[in-house]
């Protein structure tokens, strides 16, 4: 994950290479910023409709790193553990209680419309029976079986879109040029690197042909340029398998369909029309038994609502244990999400970004025709909820999920002024949801906002 930049700086402060490392980190951040400013490629915009309407996805980081409960791949790259000791975890990865059907049912019940599984992280350990390498859970672990196919089949059966995470770098492969923070196997050997990208193409052909994913979630592109990764050629090849395939932004500028901010909740809307925040339930991507810092379901729902307000998706992550069981805390979060999303379904899916901040002290979304304003309250209002600068007449207000009609009124509208009055909605205590209450406000037409600075009274 890109948070390696901070690790990189802190590591080299102790080795007196701070300035050199700072420049490297700065260059990586510059590339990231450039990517965020670049319009993403959508040759087939219709394929993005399901993604835009999906709103919620589930990220699953599962691999041998769950055995010791350590950072996936980064723990040996950062020299917290030797590569040899990291790979000893292969012997403890059993997947003995892996139940893909129950996983898929739980994911669907949460309200998620797609899920993404880490088929291969930076450590190079494949979760399927790859013919391109011996390094897979099929050949090297007690699990001894393909783990990607059964989950993809179960997701498809439940009507959940199938996503596959794939690291384009591989710190285990003999033809990849980097192993750990300080170790380079070789440098500037394009012939050898071409052998490595051929290997990537072979593995991605296997995944595409066997599982036909709806989405690829790439990662690890920062160590080489798009030209070196052969991103254009790779994208063309993948679209040959599935013209409706969606690809995230991590193959380089211009090669992805949507942006992927990570962990930190955006305060302002990302530049891309399509975007997704990926975030962990606790502080770890993969399973770490000592990480009990799980966010509460209510806290995660508020983050989800922030994404809805800005027209994006939330890709919420959990890490299964090495035997394939899902941590109890994660099950609870997914269950609570299911309670809330099923109740407020009409205010989640097929909505678009809400009105600008400042009109209401709450996140909002709009129906596709912009005639229904949805308001999300994670607090109880003092007396009544105020809406500022709404020119429309309010036709009706109701509480989403129970249908209770609420009263609204307008105060302070002067007949001679174009400035609208304050709209107020009275909310009785008994209608509040335990997490987030949603109001639907039906307008007399598409939302029309007053965004000026007010007027001076010159004649009364």
TrEMBL record:
Family, similarity comment: Belongs to the glycosyl hydrolase 29 family.
Keyword annotations: Glycosidase, Hydrolase, Signal
Alphabetical list of Pfam families matching this protein: Alpha_L_fucos
This protein's GO CC annotations: lysosome
Family annotation (InterPro entries): FUC_metazoa-typ, GH, Glyco_hydro_29, Glyco_hydro_29_N
Protein name as annotated: alpha-L-fucosidase
Any one GO molecular function term: alpha-L-fucosidase activity
Domain of life: Bacteria
Taxonomic placement: Bacteria, Pseudomonadati, Bacteroidota, Cytophagia, Cytophagales
SUPFAM superfamilies: (Trans)glycosidases
The protein's enzyme class: hydrolase
Biological role stated in the UniProt entry: Alpha-L-fucosidase is responsible for hydrolyzing the alpha-1,6-linked fucose joined to the reducing-end N-acetylglucosamine of the carbohydrate moieties of glycoproteins.
Enzyme Commission number(s) of this protein: 3.2.1.51
Residues the UniProt record annotates as site (May be important for catalysis): 278
GO biological process, one term: glycoside catabolic process
Domain (Glycoside hydrolase family 29 N-terminal) ranges: 37-344
